[in-house]
Amino acid sequence: MKRVKRIALVAHDNQKRDIVDWVERNADILRRHKLISTGTTGRLILEMLNKTHPDDHIDITLLKSGPLGGDQQIGAMICNQEIDFLIFLTDPMTPQPHDVDVKALVRVAVIYNIIMACNLASADFAIHSTLFDTDYTPQSQDYSKYLRRDW
Question: Cβ neighbours of residue 91 under 8 Å, at least 6 residues apart?
Fold first, then answer.
């Protein structure tokens, strides 16, 4: 994991305002990194950045909306080692029709041992860690025994 982190931003509908506000509060840190976001969340973040930081460039790549495949796109990027950090603000009070997609995304983040924050407190702790702005090699899991299992 390089000094410049590739950070995926995903938020359920009732959490979108929180992630937009979080990005605004942390724009000085985040501008040094590459942001990737599901469509609706990313568009809201870009709208805020254009209003509050019009002269600053923050690199953000927009994918599809979560329910239209954006969650799977981020999952594929994690599998291809193109994401270092996932911030995924879920809404614990509202049932999600694409709950299986949510579980799959969290599962892939755990398998590939990337940084994952599911609330603002853990996101804050992660970006303010002394490890955040350094090269970092996470411990990798060895799944070779699993892959060799005789079914």
Answer: 12, 13, 14, 15
